[in-house]
Amino acid sequence: GEGKAVHFVREWALEELTSSLARVGTKRSFTRGKQAFATAQCRACHRMGTGPEAGGVFGPDLTAVASRFGRRDLLVAILDPSRAMDEKYRNTILRLRDGTQLVGVVESESPEGLVLRPNPLSEETIQIPTEKIAELTPSAISPMPAGLLNVFERDEILDLLAYLEAGGNPESPVFKE
Fold this sequence. Notes:
about 15% strand, alpha+beta
C-alpha cells in the first residue's frame, strides 16, 4: 500500500553506509524492508520471489541477487545504477532523420522498423518505421533512477538490503533475533 508520504531524507553516499553493512546480517525488520522495496518502486521493474505480486521484468530478477552480489556491491548498484549495466536492460537512444531524439527499450525489431518502450513503468510503445531512423546508440545511463535511497533513514536502507539478501523470504535468518 501507499501508506506513508515519502520525504527527502538525505543524499546518501556509499561511504556513509558501508560502515553499517555488517548490521544487515541480523535483527532486521522484514516489514520495513518490504515496505522500502515498495516505496522505492523496485517492484515496478524487478521481480522478487514468485506469485501474483512478484513484480516486473524490465530489470534483472532480484530473487537470488544475494548469490551474485555481496552487500557492498548491491549498495553500489542501487546508489549508482549506471556504473555497471546488463546489456539486455540498457536503453537505446534513437535519433530520427527529423532531428527528434527518443530514449527507451527496443522491444522488437524488424525490416519495417522497431517498437520502442520509452517508459518501463508504462505499457505504451511507439512504432518507428526504419526509414525515419537516422541512428541507434546504446545509452550510458541506466533506466533505473539514481537517488532511490534518498527518501530512507539508515535503518530502512539496511532493512531493504536485508530484504534483498533474504530474497523476500520472511523466514530468513537476517530477520531473527
